């Protein structure tokens, strides 16, 4: 979460709210609404998992128009793996909102996060709709965030302001997700709201790119949810000249967006299941970005590397093991490994003499790991979590 | 380990021994020798990791001749990531043995397993050589196995006998490896000894195939050591007509070999770091073996699936998540998931009503998981371990 106080999470033209409608048994909030006073330009990125939850299937259709006015999210139930009945439930959830707001039904996006394989209690959502809509207000974004949370330990919000032409624009994002995936296989949800006026194709392109460099460059457990959804709504309320093409305004907007998404995605890793350390893995001197990415993910998803970081063990042997197993023809004598800039492996062998310093570095809660491949000039950066007892504890719990 | 008593681990023409030479500080045996009274036909399979340990690099050269007479193995030190000095140490280790045995140096294969990045204490190995060779005996195979162990909880040996023509042949194998990899990144080592007479090309081909279907179809943590080595020695002492081509004898020999390697590889999973359960993952109805393999490994290496099995949680949601993220265009409504034959997911949704039976099944220490893709007729079978607190505990320990 950003250091800014809660007042700053206001985006002109957007209202939000969150309530408890009865899906979560413990009384916590479980229904969130984000509403744009007028239809907004919209773009979205969804999970590429073949098993997509019902709300994802519905939203994928609706986003094609490039417009949306509301995002209705429930937590406590993922509405995934429920067959055709699940799709009808997603539709019913949408209709309950559109009829209450009196807007076109296809301007509603829906999202669900929680237990899978159980029918969504649509009646509870319908019963809560009047309160949810009645409570909509400009300060409601943090409340909506709260109602989206499942095993999240803290809310994840980020906001940036900048100038386009003579107009101030705001880009504000919220995210939920304790890892890419929570115990009962829920979801990473990210919503970005902006009052900037952005041309449709440009919005979609810049959002995809920013998600790719931020959310698609973190790894908690290498798993991909059936419900992952990232949406951006741009309502144009700032009155700026429409952002498009390759203007300077586009650069400004993209930078604000990147900062917001970087903040949120790193917060997701910090809040990852059982995370005690965040590892920034920077793979450099690769022949291609693809190679750099492959090595970075191999390291990030190696349980031996993850447990070593958890134990504060500067075990570079496990790092070369993971890199060496990728199938990339690494020049083994040119590979270099650095913890916070301190070399630990060079010229095909360990570098000794700085054990004390390295041991101190390994105690940090955020550690930079540089892996130089000696093959070219491309790089890829990834934020990953360690693997702790708590991860196993959280995930060994019974669903049934 | 097989149920047969220790006397059965005798292969005509082979001698073996194991001693403590001082590499391990706790006094356990750390130097193992297998010796064929005459040079044997030899074939081997090595790690495909780019970072290969010095003994692997040496053996890869030597195995090209298709002959070997001795395998010298030390535990407690992997002789990996030591640069050119490590290679010279591997050579020195070999020479110490060949001069003592008075055999050609290039008939010696060497292997090392233990901590990486530390120089091999060659003097200790040299000093122990006289005792090691003096103690060689026909009953020595279990002692050699003992001297190869690192974090292994139990010795892994398997032996089968059969008939080729009128001659009895023996195929006996030993393995070490608590997982594909032990805490300090050591190794899976497998040696198979047989007195059968097998033509060189045939031996190599049948061994590769058998390793592929056994050791290359288990997964403890998805990691690949720098030292993995599997060797077969065939000394021809049984006096059978040479096995080659596509004879009935070849089928018999291959079956014995497959049984020995299947026993050993499954023992390695059972003895995997922190393993409490072995999961037999059978992916069926795939379009290709490649697809089936991809899905099987995605499930086997998913920490969410592994922790669910540890917790006894029949969480099929995590299984479809892993399968769905592979990129294979699965027909989601045709995929079926079964625990020990009981369907839990069919027609795109969960199957309910047998929760009690499924809960009982999940308590077993060995569980069969069938995943039917509904795409074709190919299949792949994989043995995997779960992910427990103990795994994290073992692997979070300090190397330094």
Properties at a glance:
homodimer, 400 residues, alpha+beta, L-amino peptidase D-ALA esterase/amidase, Ubiquitin-like (UB roll), 2 domains, seven-stranded mixed β-sheet, 11 helices, 32% helix, globular
Describe this structure in words.
The structure is a homodimer of 400-residue chains. In chain A, 32% of the residues lie in helices and 27% in strands. With 400 residues, chain A is of the alpha+beta class. The first copy, chain A, has 2 domains: 265 residues, L-amino peptidase D-ALA esterase/amidase (4-Layer Sandwich); 118 residues, Roll (Ubiquitin-like (UB roll)), CATH 3.10.20. In chain A, β5 and β6 form a beta hairpin. In chain A, α2 runs parallel beside α3. The first copy, chain A, starts with 13 loop residues before the first strand and ends in a 5-residue tail after the last helix. The N terminus of chain A is likely disordered. The interface between A and B is large, with 67 and 67 residues.
């Amino acid at each position: 979460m950003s250091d800014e106080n809660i007042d700053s999470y206001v985006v002109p033209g957007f209202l939000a709210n969150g309530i408890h409608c009865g899906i979560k048994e413990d009384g916590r909030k479980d229904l969130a609404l984000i509403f744009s006073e007028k239809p907004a330009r919209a773009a979205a990125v969804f999970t590429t998992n073949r098993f997509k939850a019902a709300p994802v299937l519905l939203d994928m259709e609706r986003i094609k128009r490039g417009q949306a006015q509301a995002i209705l999210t429930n937590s406590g139930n993922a509405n995934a793996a429920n067959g055709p009945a699940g799709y009808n439930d997603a539709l019913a959830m949408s209709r309950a909102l559109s009829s209450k707001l009196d807007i076109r039904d296809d301007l509603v996006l829906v999202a669900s996060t929680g237990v899978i394989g159980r029918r969504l209690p649509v009646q509870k959502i319908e019963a809560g709709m009047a309160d949810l809509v009645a409570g909509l207000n400009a300060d409601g974004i943090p409340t909506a965030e709260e109602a989206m949370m499942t095993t999240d330990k803290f809310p994840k919000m980020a906001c940036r302001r900048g100038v386009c032409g003579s107009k101030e624009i705001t880009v504000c994002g919220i995210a939920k997700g304790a890892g890419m995936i929570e115990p009962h296989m829920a979801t990473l949800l990210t919503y970005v709201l902006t009052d900037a006026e952005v041309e449709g194709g440009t919005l979609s392109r810049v959002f995809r790119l920013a998600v790719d460099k931020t959310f698609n460059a973190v790894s908690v457990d290498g798993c991909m949810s059936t419900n992952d959804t990232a949406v951006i709504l741009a309502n144009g309320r700032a009155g700026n000249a429409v952002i498009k093409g390759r203007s300077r305004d586009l650069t400004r907007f993209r930078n604000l967006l990147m900062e917001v998404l970087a903040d949120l995605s790193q917060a997701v890793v910090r809040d990852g299941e059982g995370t005690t350390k965040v590892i920034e893995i920077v793979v450099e001197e690769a022949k291609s970005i693809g190679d750099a990415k492959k090595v970075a993910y191999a390291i990030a998803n190696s349980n031996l590397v993850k447990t070593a970081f958890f134990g504060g063990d500067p075990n570079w042997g496990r790092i070369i093991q993971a890199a060496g197993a990728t199938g990339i023809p690494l020049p083994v004598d040119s590979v270099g490994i650095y913890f916070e800039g301190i070399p630990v492996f060079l010229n095909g062998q360990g570098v000794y003499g700085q054990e004390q310093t390295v041991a101190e570095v390994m105690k940090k809660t955020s550690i930079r790991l540089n892996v130089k491949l000696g093959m070219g000039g491309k790089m890829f950066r990834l934020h990953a979590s360690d693997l702790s007892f708590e991860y196993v504890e959280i995930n060994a719990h019974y669903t049934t």
